[in-house]
Amino acid sequence: MNQNQPQLPKGICVLETQVAGHLFTNNTAALGMLKDETIGCVLKPFGKPECGARELSFYESLQNTHDPQLKKLQNFIPKFYKKIRLEVNGKDHTFFQLEDLTHGMQQPCIMDIKVGKRTWDPLASPHKCKVEEEKYARCKQVLGICLPGFQVYTENGYKKFDRDYGKKLDAEGLGEALRLFLNAQEMVCESLIEELLRQLYDIRAWFREQKHFHFYASSLLIAYDYVALQKRLQNEKCTACQKSKQQQQHYIPNGNGLHICEVVDNLDDVDSCYPTSPTHKAIPSFENESLNTCRCLERYVKVKMIDFAHVFPSANNSLDMNYLFGLESLIAILEAMLKR
């Protein structure tokens, strides 16, 4: 449990499963994320006024939209309920009330993956640009993604990794971290990877069409329930899994020896086509193939876009190539795990 417990209203507690972002600590005034135990939602601090206002505007624009493309985006983000005020440590603060993506999970494995080689927005100062450029540079500039934090349950117990761990990773190290998170260091859980890819393909398809927004410093949150997934993979209750996998093993040897730290072209050189990840050409895409994914896994495996304080209207009606580049890299790494 968190030893730096703040003074909170009844029914509100610290979100112990938070893996990235500002946390409650004794030596700072930063607010961490909270959980409303009475209705099963999470509370995200409003943050800096201009950032909070921008994120609120983003959520409200999706609530009020009649645009079919933006309505589709609602499927890829946590549900936004409302803006609320709470007293924390004797002071009033504003929070976003959001869907708890891990609600009902017994042992939630959670990873925050920040997407994009560029993580500063158009209004950032030169100093801010420089600071962001240097963060997670060893993997971010190669893959267009970085790893602020994650937690994982394994047969040996529970582990949590923070941003200090993520900052030490290079591109190949990030791949190793993903395998650790997915319990795939020795054997790959095929059904889990396939379900993650199915959801990521849907998000990628949306980004390949949308020209409404550019997302800076936004993340993908990946969550799965270790306990529930193990039960499903053991065919204890899921007849759909039995039918789809009756002639297949749920686990395949992890033969992923692919190096993912090749030099890639400058992002500015590919603005006329979809970006490709460093390993994209070497790995066959499973998007157009029939993935043997049992759709019941959707309840236990989730991929959602989060953190929208730095979302801006698309410049010149263009695709968000920065986000797409990182998304392609993540997909390529997961596809490599399925490569036999």
From TrEMBL:
The keyword tRNA-binding does not apply. This is Kinase. SUPFAM superfamilies: SAICAR synthase-like (SSF56104). It comes from Musca domestica. Belongs to the inositol phosphokinase (IPK) family. It catalyses: 1D-myo-inositol 1,4,5-trisphosphate + 2 ATP = 1D-myo-inositol 1,3,4,5,6-pentakisphosphate + 2 ADP + 2 H(+); 1D-myo-inositol 1,3,4,6-tetrakisphosphate + ATP = 1D-myo-inositol 1,3,4,5,6-pentakisphosphate + ADP + H(+). Its EC number is 2.7.-.-. InterPro entries: IPK (IPR005522), IPK_sf (IPR038286).
